Amino acid sequence: MSFWGSRRVLVxxxxxxxxxxxxxxxxxxxxxxxxxxxxxxxDLRRQEDVARCLRDARPQVVIHxxxxxxxxxxxxxxxxxxxYDNAAMGIELIEQSRxxxxxxxxxxxxxxxxxAETPVPFREEELWNGYPEVTNAPYGLAKKMLLVQLQSxxxxxxxxxxxxxxxxxxxxxxxxxxxSSHVIPALIRKxxxxxxxxxxxxxxxxxxxxxxxxxxxxxxxxxxxxxxxRYDGAEPVNLGAGFEISIRExxxxxxxxxxxxxxxxxxxxxxxxxMRRRLDTxxxxxxxxxxxxxxxxxxxxxxIAWWDSARAKASPPS
Length: 318
Description:
Layout lengths: L7 E5 L4 H13 L3 E3 L11 H11 L3 E4 L7 H6 L1 H21 L4 E5 L28 H21 L3 E6 L1 E3 L12 H15 L3 E5 L5 E2 L1 E3 H14 L6 E3 L5 E2 H12 L4 E5 L14 H7 L7 H19 L4
Parallel strand pairs: 1-2, 1-3, 3-4, 4-5, 5-10, 6-9, 7-12
Antiparallel strand pairs: 8-11
């Protein structure tokens, strides 16, 4: 019998971008049950709701994928909300999972927890060597406190919690809301809408020089499932694709794939965010055999096609 066969699984954030893909993948593993609670039924910031959720689902394994997230603009506009929501959800979930005898908890952190000046590639050992980049520090620090909690609970109570650090995710089903989306869906939407309306120019934040690493959501799900099955250590583990691309190059790539042929105008008065991000992914490979498999261009084309299809379904021709 597989790791999942006899176990009940709870996925927080199961209605979100990553959560939906996780639930779909876990269904293929045929666990005893999968629960994917919604915020309308359980407010995971409230102790009593978390306790009730766990009593109702009775999971042996919890995967904590719920988060309040957004791009640079959203982080600047809502630092207090992002700190409170992410800290409160994680702290209450870990504590109530311990009290109710959950066998294993997989907590998803964020690379926004890394110090602003982390040497590239980011190694897990660098996590505490400085303060995060200021535009998303409240979010990053809230998520990093959950690593402290898990390590403390492992030491005092023997609680089996593991902590993963996924890099920026993208793929079909991503959030394309212009107020809260991350860079890839934001660029796809900007360029596709400009191309369709015949606009000659698209304005983007910063100067395009920062670099980022992106992990396709299917690869992220593979890594999470492998870690749940094979890893049971206290140390955090990066999940990434192991490559780096500048925002300028990314923008040019997305413009070409969406058919936009106009001018890209950069606004250097807007924040760039952290200047470089690329993960050292050797620990995940060594500890539970994870390597990313989806090619970046392939993943971008798939994401654009999904967005086009989703818009067509939402606005059928008259």
